């Protein structure tokens, strides 16, 4: 026994050094710089939003007018509500490519059932969106289909269904109060913008203050560990698809109410805008990382850019190019950050 | 020192396809001891512990906790017996902070039953107290695990296990990926846990670790128990000899060298 170079001796003789060594990764100067970089990337949406707003207010004619602010906020808010749902879904490490189709279905269901009264019809439209989410959740977690394929398939099916039940035509709102949700105004903001900010705050509180939010982060970060900790990973994952569907449903109803009509063909660019805003907002494509307030800022940033380009008379095609470039650069930074995280 | 046997595994056998991973293995873990479990690769160490923690189910054999036979079919059964396994590939969520990891699935909450609000203050306070009690050097329970070293992560995993009254800790190669200092800090924590009344089974390739902090050491080879030794009565050579016993002389000498060089 005596001739063994036992670790016990070392462990009892150098506690101070051991402490210093184990503290080093969190507080050393290089880590501080890494922390700053990480902080900048995490809150990039707020920085981008600040820059875009400054530019737009100073250099874009008619940007800072009451009418433009009202219109712009309503525009980005409808897609923005979807971004909030996608943020939660993507934190749980899923994605839904069919949010645009769900948006269209919800609008059509809302318009078709308007004779039941607007509140009931709105509820049905929203439930239709949630229903699509339930189907997605079921297909992904029970039938174990990859979520890209699953949501792409549901998207096609939902699109077909939307055209069938609408008879391929626009359905106009005739019930009393059909357009109220889309146009009611409080100060500068119309109802969709208020709904967007309200849902954003609620979602933020759920993700940061409740056990449910923690679970969504947990399953997106390490599904295995979450399972070992006793979480019902499948049910939580399925529920995140329902949240995305629910938000798409709300957005669809608001859009139809605003247009006082429901068109089965809307929502083609919705997924691109919503996913871009979410990723700009700091949500990772690789799960477990993201925050709702960032997504709200990401939505506002893209909204300001889109609105400014319109006011400056930039053609729609160039706008697509610009939006594509923004998305690619954000995705590249996400891939870079993810690699850093995995090797850290 | 005589003390009660807290875990008894009797005649445990397990077969994976054509491989007999465990063959009639017995194990006794006493209350408040560190039992080392050593042996070559594929000796059956991890399989035996996975059976005790409910990750595998034995083909035959009995498990007794405090003298009473129990049925452990999944990790939840094991947990209700006070058994917690700390895995080599850590069961932590790197994107969550220390407190959220410790309390994952068992959060303190208040308010609405359908949407329970986290009692973060209580979780952070208790986590900080736990880290302090275990002498774990992590400056704040608000730190995310992804920002920590391998040793710190192991210690968070251990804290997570004992936060909820696990009396029996199973650790699979906890020091394997650590540097010397971090490994020593972790070994000291394991010793503190033992002194605090926990019983620990420590699977390891590093025999000197066991000799430093363990009470007894059990040797497995080819799915069979080779023997169990009191640490206070043996040295490194005795253990290594038992690990490699039964092989051709020349080969075993080489193997023995390899083991000795771990120290």
TrEMBL record, chain A:
InterPro entries: ABC_transp_permease. It is found in: Cell membrane. It is a multi-pass membrane protein. The keyword Cell membrane applies. One of its GO terms (molecular function) is transmembrane transporter activity. Residues 1-29 are annotated as: Disordered. One of its GO terms (cellular component) is plasma membrane. Residues 1-22 have a biased composition (Polar residues). It comes from the Bacteria. The chain crosses the membrane at residues 45-64, 84-111, 118-139, 145-165, 186-207, 236-260, 272-305, 317-337. Keywords: Cell membrane, Membrane, Transmembrane, Transmembrane helix. This is ABC transporter permease. It comes from Caldilineaceae bacterium SB0664_bin_27. The lineage of its organism: Bacteria, Bacillati, Chloroflexota, Caldilineae, Caldilineales.
């Amino acid at each position: 026994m005596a001739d063994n170079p036992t670790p016990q001796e070392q462990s009892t003789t150098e506690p101070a050094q051991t402490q210093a060594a184990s503290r080093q990764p969190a507080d050393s100067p290089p880590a501080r710089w890494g922390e700053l970089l990480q902080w900048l990337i995490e809150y990039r949406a707020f920085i981008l939003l600040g820059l875009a707003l400054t530019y737009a207010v100073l250099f874009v004619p008619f940007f800072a007018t009451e009418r433009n602010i009202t219109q712009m906020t309503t525009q980005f808010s409808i897609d923005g509500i979807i971004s909030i749902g996608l943020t939660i879904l993507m934190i749980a490490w899923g994605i839904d490519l069919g949010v645009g189709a769900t948006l269209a279905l919800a609008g059509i269901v809302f318009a078709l059932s308007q004779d039941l009264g607007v509140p009931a019809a709105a509820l049905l439209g929203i439930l239709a969106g949630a229903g699509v989410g339930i189907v997605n959740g079921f297909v992904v977690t029970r039938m174990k289909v990859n979520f890209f394929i699953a949501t792409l398939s549901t998207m096609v099916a939902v699109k077909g269904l939307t055209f069938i039940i609408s008879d391929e035509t626009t359905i106009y709102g005739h019930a009393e109060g059909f357009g109220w949700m889309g146009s009611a105004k409080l100060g500068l903001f119309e109802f969709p913008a208020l709904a967007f900010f309200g849902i954003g705050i609620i979602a933020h509180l759920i993700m940061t203050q409740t056990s449910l939010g923690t679970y969504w982060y947990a399953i997106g970060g390490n599904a295995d560990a979450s399972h070992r900790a006793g979480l019902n990973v499948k049910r939580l994952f399925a529920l995140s698809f329902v949240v995305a569907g629910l938000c798409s449903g709300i957005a669809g109803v608001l859009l139809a109410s605003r247009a006082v009509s429901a068109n089965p063909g809307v929502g083609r660019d919705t997924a691109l805008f919503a996913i871009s805003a979410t990723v700009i907002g700091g949500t990772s494509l690789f799960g477990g990382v993201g925050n709702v307030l960032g997504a709200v800022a990401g939505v506002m940033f893209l909204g300001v850019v889109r609105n400014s380009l319109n006011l400056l008379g930039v053609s729609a095609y160039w706008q697509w190019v610009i939006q594509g470039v923004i998305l690619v650069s954000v995705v590249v930074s996400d891939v870079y950050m993810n690699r850093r995280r995995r090797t850290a | 020192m005589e003390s009660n046997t807290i875990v008894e595994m009797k005649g445990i056998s397990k077969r994976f396809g054509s491989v007999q991973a465990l063959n009639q293995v017995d194990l006794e873990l006493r209350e408040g001891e560190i039992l080392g479990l050593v042996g070559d690769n594929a000796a059956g160490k991890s399989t035996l512990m996975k059976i005790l923690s409910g990750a595998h189910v034995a083909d035959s054999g009995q498990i007794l906790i405090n003298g009473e036979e129990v049925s452990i079919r999944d990790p939840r059964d094991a947990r209700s017996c006070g058994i917690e396994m700390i895995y080599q590939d850590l069961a932590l969520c790197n994107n969550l902070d220390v407190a959220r990891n410790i309390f994952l699935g068992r959060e303190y909450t208040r308010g609405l039953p359908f949407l329970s609000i986290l009692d973060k203050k209580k979780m952070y306070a208790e986590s900080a107290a736990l880290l302090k009690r275990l002498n774990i050097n992590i400056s704040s329970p608000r730190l995310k695990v992804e920002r920590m070293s391998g040793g710190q992560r192991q210690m968070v995993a251990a804290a997570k296990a004992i936060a909820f009254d696990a009396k029996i800790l199973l650790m699979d190669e906890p020091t394997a990926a650590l540097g010397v200092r971090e490994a020593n800090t972790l070994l000291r924590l394991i010793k503190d846990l033992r002194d605090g009344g926990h019983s620990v089974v420590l699977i390891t390739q590093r025999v000197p670790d066991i000799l430093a902090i363990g009470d007894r050491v059990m040797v497995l080879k080819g799915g069979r128990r080779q023997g169990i030794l009191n640490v206070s009565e043996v040295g490194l050579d005795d253990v290594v000899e038992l690990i490699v016993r039964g092989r051709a002389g020349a080969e075993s000498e080489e193997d023995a060298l390899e083991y000795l060089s771990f120290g």
